Amino acid sequence: MKVATTQNNVISNICTMTYRNLLKTLHNPDNFSDVIMEPVIFTLLFGFLFGGAIAGSVHAYLPILVPGILIQSILNAASGSGQQLREDINGGVFDRFKTLPIASIVSLAGQLFGDVLRLLLSGMMALVTATLMGWRPTVSLPMLGVALLLALFIGWSAAWIFALVGLLVKNAELIGSLSMIIILVLTFLSNAFVPTKTLPLFLQKVVAINPVSFAVTAIRSILTTGNWGVAATLTLVSGVLITVVFMGLSILVYRRRA
User: Fold this and answer.
1) Largest CA distance in the chain
2) I want to staple 130 with a disulfide (CB 3.0 to 4.6 A). Which of 10, 30, 135, 158 is the partner?
């Protein structure tokens, strides 16, 4: 009974902290600027610049582009978790949280669950922009929702990586720069935007083990066939592993350094 009560308290505290972070985000519209603008800019930029060269036309390129731009947009939104976490820590907010009778995971989980709104908004902006450019999904609306949910889960899993960066690096601006470098390396060294057959052999091997490639392949398959395939299962499993590992590391670092 005592264990169940403790678990209920942790869940209740996480919900409270999530609500706090949602309110903080909603009362600071500037936090949405990158989430809204970046998906629009990158979708337009990649679509019109690379569409003709890679697929012959923008319309033919969009089915290739959409899964990649969806993952990139959500990862961009996820990268903000570390920066916002560090801003709260530097502002002394987390010092106050440590004085409360709550588990260490509550403060971190509340921040990252609250950021799901940012991830969802970023993913929706990418899909809306692609739709306005002429992209039309060939699968049912439920399967489109499945693809979006899978992308959101991968983005949320990656947010724990950025949270760890936010705990280790004390300068919020540096966290933003490091996060952008991580995203650029992961997305451009993947199958997100270009066919991998034209890459040098050593880069093809790098792309093959890139977790972003798994995620893009899975979402591309769902949006093309409407079926949940092996790639989607591997992506889900890898997301769970990333979450478990980096959540544990984040909690450990938070207890010692934050």
Assistant:
1) 64
2) 135
